[in-house]
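Reminder: ligand-aware prediction takes two inputs, not one.
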Amino acid sequence: MRLTVIGTGYVGLVSGVCFSELGNDVVCVDKVSAKIDMLNKGRIPIFEPGLEELVQKNKNEGRLRFTTDLTGAVHDSDIIFIAVGTPSLPSGEANLSFIEQAAEEIGRSMNGFKVVVTKSTVPVGTNEKIRNIIQQHTTCLFEVASVPEFLREGTAVQDTLYPDRIIIGTSNDTARKWLTKLHTPLTDNIIVTDIRSAEMIKYASNAFLATKISFINEIANICEKVGADVTQVAFGMGSDKRIGPSFLNAGIGYGGSCFPKDTQALIQIAGQMDYDFKLLKSVVEVNRDQRFNMLRKLEAILGDLRSKTIAIWGLAFKPETDDVRDAPAFEIISALLRKGAVVRAYDPIAADNFKNHFQGAVEYCVSAQKAAWHADALCILTEWKEFCDTSPSVIQSWLKQPNLIDGRNIYSEEDLAGTELNYYSIGRPNMNKGVRVNDPVLLQ
Ligand code: UDX
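Here is what comes back for the chain with uridine-5'-diphosphate-xylopyranose:
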């Protein structure tokens, strides 16, 4: 099939490349010519395992092109995917201006029947707006559909090529047939819904996963008070098929480009319909507070943080990505600086995307060792493999004071055996080592 994908961010680029891998002719379009130039030279603007190789392969085999020429791309395609960003407005609502602009340009470029598919996460009713905008700019026949994307950064290629399900939101037969044919090589589990339900499925799925994370983080906080171990609790809970084991890792809260934005947007969508989504508001609040769990521990161990050197390992919102959007590291580092701490940070690949935010106030180090060297405490914010593979006894030998706050529960009891670290993780009070404060409540 002949496809255009508008927007070469995570969703657009990965979807376009994967569709070409399935044998379709794909043109990826972006307004930013620097991005297109880069892609044409075979380099990719984001870090995503496996993506660069797939871009090269499909470009070389002639199925994948990159251009700024939206009109030419639309002319040559049967299906057009809109995969542009929907960033948050200050109110939390999704900003639809890129979507609206894309719809208008598609309308102006139509030269025959096309199916226009939204992959971006958009509020319920947006596809109808897209239909109206296109209609105002063309006399050609077309159909709209919603096919939301569920890929995760870091495993985006795998998630796209092996999805759990594909949701196709349309009430039109041709759109259903074309989109079913396009996605059949990926999975048997294709679910066809009406457009509004498809739009809602994306928000509801992300909000539910965010809820699972905030839930287990609150359970972790209670575990710290009652002396239970949240990893054992999560394992026990997750073994019930109705609950499932995924998204039950306690930590310092979710970040990234989707959960924070989509939870806020769903609260807004509900609010506009006079519905107070109390549960989701609490999920967001719990997530905000969870970032400070490790700060409370740090202060309990070190007291006043003024002039203390705190090493930070991990700036990306999760491993295997250079994305720092809404990463917990922002709030944690801001709070440390406010309290007068000296902050040294290291991330295997995301530091460049983080650097301009603290204008010289943070020292960015070229290695994990340099960041930890003679620090008063080390905080682990992202569970990069490099950190998991570094033994706590080595960490201890690097630190001035042996204080390790593990915000992602990466170390086990065996890893810590033989060390004299003051070790604190999330929701595992029995793993705390070298407690220096008498009152455990201080640690919560
Ligand atoms: C998410 C959804 O998973 C994906 O379906 C959607 O399309 C986009 O948003 P992504 O943001 O890439 O994907 O990352 P994900 O792996 O879901 O993690 C999101 C955040 O939750 C990360 O900050 C991660 O550290 C945190 N998380 C995840 C936890 O704290 N605990 C968990 O158990 C799982």
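The chain has three domains: 2-193, 202-288, 291-443. The longest strand covers residues 2-6. We will return to this case in the review session.
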